[in-house]
Amino acid sequence: MSKRQRGHHTTASKPQAKRSRLGISIGAPSADDRRFPSDNNPSSSALSTRVVKQRHAPALASLCIRIFAEHFAEFSDEEHWESTRTWLKILPDSVLLNLFSVLKAQHPRRLNHAVITTYFLRGISVSLNGELALTSHTLTAIPRVLGSKLLVLELSDIDKYTDSTYAAMVKDLPLLNTLVLRNCPKVGPSTAEMIANNCRHLKKLNLNFTSVTALSLIALFKAIPDLEVLKLAGIQNLSDATISRLFSLLTDDGDQAGRIPLRNLKTLKLRHNTISEIAIAPFLQRCTHLERLDVSFTLLKHIPDLPASPSIEKISLTSTFLPGKELVELINHLPHLRILNAGAMGVKAATTSAMSTSTAMTLSDDILRHLTDALQGCPVVQSVNLVQNTKLGASRGHNSAIAYFIQHIGRKLSYLNLSGVSVRSGDLLGLVPENQGQEVSPLETLILNKSLVDDECAPWISSCKLLEVLEVAETRISGWQFITHGGQQET
């Protein structure tokens, strides 16, 4: 009963061997790790996808892009290519960008260096990934073709080329405001230095899973004081010691305009780093306008002091060691919170499911009740993820901790993930409006994989008229009750 579908990545090229998609799993399972068995290999634990009918006719341009992509192999053969290339050259930039996105998903290996640089390097934005048939010349062509016109550059999952190649590329892109180099492990100190020297207008910088060093970030922070989004996940060189060294060398002196490094930062991602509150604290001391903080899969045991009036809207603490009482106290000081990710609290990243049931788990039923009360002080909260908190659900009955949470918080959300939690059908009764005056739950996504729900939960879930995504893999649900109740609501 999910709208999610996995994109079909055909890897045809003239003719080249298939290349499997890179899937680097670091830490606990994520959405990218979910199983999607084929039709000839059904499984009771698999996700089931229903294609929901469109409420409106698709735009003509969208239909044309879809048909073109479906027949791209034919359109790019020797017989048709001359005509195809003529049409590609005259397509408007907006249409070409959408077409390129679809072709990258369906025919990545047909998009080689010549095709990309000749027909798709246009406009103010470029997005490339490691599935495409890139060469180092593709990267060097980006500044040559677009230069100062380029505002957004996104490169992801590219595990080749050298640090100097990336550095030479960004050298001649002075007006970039968004630079993503996610999971490009060869990106290192030279690239960071060149970004600092030449990309002074950056607002968003993603260096997740690269090889930059803490010291190479000093010049970058000083040169780009207006940075608003900084992502530094999974960087091997980042540790308590190296980050402490970084901030000891980063003075509070502003530039000529009085701008102080990191003062304008709104989003900070430090997940999957071997750091504790020792390294996180100096970031929080400087980032007084922070709105989104992700320290999941770190060694965090205590929350450092936050600004006096925190404006944090999203906080991710999954697989950290923060005590439950400190989590509750933290939420009490975040009145503007919209998104809370607190899965597998107390469990180290990549631990086995058997180990996750140990007493190390910090989120218990008692803590959940206090957390529920704290979240009631967050009037705009809309998403909560409590995945794999296996100590939850010890109490049963209509007044269980989970039932209390769903009645007072869960039913008000648009996204709720309780996968791997001992949720029982009766706990979901709180999704139903108590009276005619109470609004229908705005839930759009409900994830209950590996929970204890059975067919009795069908009427409670079917009361969520706006539900679009429901995941109940590896539960006790047979499906018949959902067919009965699901037919009563519009989807």
From TrEMBL:
GO biological process assignments: SCF-dependent proteasomal ubiquitin-dependent protein catabolic process
Basic residues biased stretches: 1-21
Region described as Disordered: spans on this chain: 1-50
UniProt biased composition (Polar residues): 38-48
Gene Ontology, cellular component aspect: SCF ubiquitin ligase complex
PROSITE patterns per the UniProt record, alphabetical: LRR
PANTHER family: F-BOX PROTEIN YLR352W, PARTNER OF PAIRED, ISOFORM B-RELATED
Protein name, as recorded: RNI-like protein
Organism placement in taxonomy: Eukaryota, Fungi, Dikarya, Basidiomycota, Agaricomycotina
